[in-house]
Structure prediction request, 368 residues.
Amino acid sequence: MAYFDAASTEPLHPAAREAYLSALGAGWADPARLYGPARRARLLLEQSRAEIAELLGARADELSFPSSGTHAVHLGILGALAGRRRVGERVVASAVEHSSVLHAAPEAALVPVSLTGRADVAAFAEAVAVEGTALACLQTANHEVGTLQPVAEVAEACRAAGVPLMVDACVTAGRLPIPAGWSVLAASAHKWGGPAGVGVLAVRKGTRFRSPYPEDDRGRVPGFPDVPAVAAAAAALRAVSAEAAAENARLAGLVDLIRDRVPKLIPDVEVIGEPVERAPHIVTFSCLYVDGEALLTELDRLGFAVSSGSSCTASTLRPSHVLEAMGVLTHGNVRVSLPRGASRDDVERFLASLPEVVRRIRLDAGVS
Prediction:
């Protein structure tokens, strides 16, 4: 199987596996207690927290570990809104934010995006200047099409308006530097090769924040932390950050190959997203007259694991809200997201197989 769905989850990094197995012996106790095993677990937890914070450009005492990136987004939005309830309840977000943002802030004012999925900075600046705006939200890169967002420019507009910015960095954390200017940051360890079950929530010092939970640790996340998993997340982040420059360049070259070849091999195909300002490992295209589910099923049968449309709505009949907001084709959509170590041979095999798969599906649908 050629696994091309790293935007959903990156395979566990060997460094994470090694760190997890090692930490099981030292990090099993409750780090909130005072006896020896608990102190060892606490030390391991705080060392891991400090390492993740440094690599993400935060302070250790700003970090908490929810159970996922979605949990981090929900908690970040709800906590920031609770902390600024005297200002208002209005949330501003780009129209292509992850569904977790839109679920946590269903009444958000949505800022339009370009045909390539990039948020309009001027429209964002105008929106956050509206009285009663309590929070703005912007992703570092889009999870469906890979387009990088103008986070630094939007952060400056938010600063001028006195509005905190929550940045969803799940797609790029560990791959690209986190842009400056965020007040609240969300990330997810399984996206950079750490274990599932470890989200990251960072709240900048000075940001008004009140946890929606009645009982919590450090004012944000309640419960007993999975110390070995956090240690594994730190090890994976350290490893992928060290590899990032070389691996990003290699994967970007493979993505360029797909972007260039697919429209030449298959008629009536639209390659979606920014051609240059994008996450290095993601490429998305839509095939006219093709059912996305049928396309994924056939590719899976041939040994290719890819996704279609929104990873959170792929099992429903609803078109992707991201693709709709961009004004591009919403059906017959394929997202290829290359994991660490993806080979050119597998990409070439994918490109060799795809045209015949699309041709057969179109013939079955009565389209020649």
Residues 227-265 form the longest helix (39 residues). Confidence is low (pLDDT under 50) at residues 310-314. DSSP finds ten helices and twelve strands in the chain. The radius of gyration is 21 Å.
